[in-house]
Design goal:
single chain; 99 residues; mainly alpha; 2 strands; 4% strand
Length: 99
């Protein structure tokens, strides 16, 4: 969710000199109720700070990150945004005043 595999992989791709993999950790929040409708993400999310959930502030597994995963994630994100921008460009607002 924060500072885990995907975010760290993306940073390894974009700014590898800023990532200190020797300090990477794997940490997940403990004690969250599993039977609650409230969750950290989703339709009924609650407010949270990373330092309030884990000692390191990481929510995930940064040790699994690789630059190659970051490359694939960046390509996928870019493809997705190209599709969004293309769709916005092509969108034609219907004229509801014509009857």
């Amino acid at each position: 969710i924060h500072g885990g595999d995907l975010e760290t992989s993306l940073m390894l791709c974009l700014l590898p000199g800023q990532v200190k993999m020797d300090r990477a950790v794997k940490e997940y929040p403990q004690g969250l109720p599993e039977d609650s409708l409230l969750s950290m993400e989703g339709q009924l999310s609650f407010a949270w700070l990373t330092k309030g959930l884990t000692q390191s502030g990481v929510l995930g597994d940064a040790t699994a990150a690789t630059e190659e995963k970051g490359d694939r994630l960046l390509a996928s994100l870019c493809d997705g945004w190209v599709n969004v921008i293309r769709d916005i460009y092509r969108f034609q607002q219907p004229d509801v005043t014509k009857r």
